[in-house]
Design a protein that fits this description.
alpha+beta; Nuclear Transport Factor 2, Chain: A; four-stranded antiparallel sheet; 3 helices; about 20% strand; elongated
Amino acid sequence: MTRLVRPAAALALALAAAMPFAPAQASDRDSRRAEESRAVAAARVDAAAAIAAVRAAGYGPVRDLEWDHGRWEVKTTDAEGRRVGLYVDASTGAVARRGH
């Protein structure tokens, strides 16, 4: 019986020792999210304008839109109906294929 208590106590102690690190990780994550939100808000080309730019460039309906490192990442289809990934520059609205 004592053997079951000791591993449980050791586990509880290990978990308690790790707890101070959890708020720091959450704080870093919250900080990154807040920074990303500020970047999106400051972008000259918002989500609606990015979608409009993609459509004006001749691509199909947008299936997915995400903010990625200062630009919009868009998943859509080309004129032949093939799925493509695009980037839309958040400053200029320029549309470019991913990977090219």
